[in-house]
UniProtKB/TrEMBL annotation:
The gene is ptsP. Keywords: Cytoplasm, Kinase, Magnesium, Metal-binding, Phosphotransferase system, Sugar transport, Transferase, Transport. The keyword DNA repair does not apply. It is found in: Cytoplasm. This is Phosphoenolpyruvate-protein phosphotransferase. The chain holds residues 257 to 584 of 599 of the full protein. Transmembrane segments: none annotated.
Length: 328
């Protein structure tokens, strides 16, 4: 099975009816890039930069320096041999604590995490932004921002990026003036107020792990409620298809980089919603590609519409079974 799949490494992910689907990899450290390349990823869709910060913080001065971060981002870019690398700015807090002892919030998933934390630590954030920008002089880098919900947070983030650019201009250091900036769509409020994001940003990436957590109000790391974590809840399906649909209509690229993108159970569902970009753990990539090669969007789309119209879980399950059974 593994061997059969490995023959697909260089095969482009094209559906039976000729639709090209971009398959990218999620990584946590620069050292993961070779595995991404080896799996045939066309780029990095999510570099979770917080892993370079975790376990060493506690005090801001112990964060990786600008040069150290710059070297890591550049190294990733070089390892990907010209393919695009999407670097997500620091997404700490909740399930990814900087320092176990320092987590004091009662509800950390609802607390000062991700972009909220970054905007409260402007020097730390500017350091990371300058490092990412400097790396962008060496190849295609995209900048992805986690956990945005408010228009003013997007605006504040964009103005920090502009500030970092200005600092580099003053230092006469090179960077990509046109670096694309995108948002993770992982808070229901963001999914429900998408025009605010489309207007301000260059691309969107749906974080299904958090989107499901916040939509269903279940802590993603609490085993006691794990059975309530349901990607097929009609509310989750509505938000997913709404974001993908609005993105397509507006001509802004939308990807999914949460665990759903790497699980073949959901490949046809996402394809039928119109998704054209998936980012996942490198180990999942070839199985997802296999599923795509055996899918026909002309058959999937009407069946997924049926799943989306279903109002009862039993009807969703039945519709999903029919979707899986389609042969092209
Ligand atoms: C997500 O929330 O789906 C996601 C991709 O980000 P993380 O799992 O790192 O929160
Ligand atoms: Mg997330």
């Amino acid at each position: 099975e593994r061997k059969k799949l490995s023959r697909l490494k260089k095969t482009p992910a094209i559906t039976q009816d000729g639709g090209y689907i971009a398959l990218l990899a999620n990584i946590e450290l620069p050292g993961d890039a070779p595995a991404a390349l080896d799996a045939g990823a066309v780029g990095i869709g999510l570099f979770r930069s917080e892993f370079m910060f975790m376990g060493r913080a506690g005090h801001l001065e112990r964060f990786p320096s600008e040069d150290e971060q710059f070297e890591s981002y550049k190294k990733t870019l070089v390892a990907m041999k010209g393919r695009p690398v999407t670097i997500r700015t620091l997404d700490v807090g909740a399930d990814k604590p900087l320092d176990e002892d320092e987590q004091t919030a009662l509800n950390p998933a609802l607390g000062l995490r991700a972009i909220r934390y970054c905007l409260s630590e402007p020097q730390m954030f500017l350091t990371q932004l300058r490092a990412i920008l400097r790396a962008s002089a060496y190849g295609p880098i995209k900048l992805l921002v986690p956990m945005l919900a408010h228009a003013f947070e997007i605006d504040q983030t964009l103005s920090m990026i502009e500030q970092a650019k200005q600092q580099l201009r003053e230092r006469k250091q090179k960077f990509d003036e046109e670096i694309p900036v995108g948002a993770m769509i992982e808070i229901p409020a963001a999914a429900l107020a998408l025009p605010m994001f489309i207007k301000r940003l260059d691309f969107l990436s749906i974080g299904t792990n958090d989107l499901i957590q916040y939509t269903l109000a279940i802590d993603r790391v609490d085993h006691e409620v794990a059975h309530l974590y349901d990607p097929l809840h009609p509310a989750v399906l509505f938000l997913l298809s709404s974001v993908i649909g609005q993105g397509r209509k507006a001509g802004i690229p939308v990807s999914v980089c949460g665990e759903m993108a790497g699980d073949t159970k959901w490949t046809r569902l996402l394809l039928g919603m119109g998704l054209q970009e998936f980012s996942m753990h490198p180990a999942q990539l070839l199985s997802v590609k296999y599923e795509i090669l055996n899918s026909d969007l002309r058959l999937l789309e009407p069946q997924v519409k049926k799943v989306l119209r279903a109002t009862e879980p039993a009807a969703v399950t039945a519709g999903m079974a029919q979707l899986q059974a389609l042969v092209s």
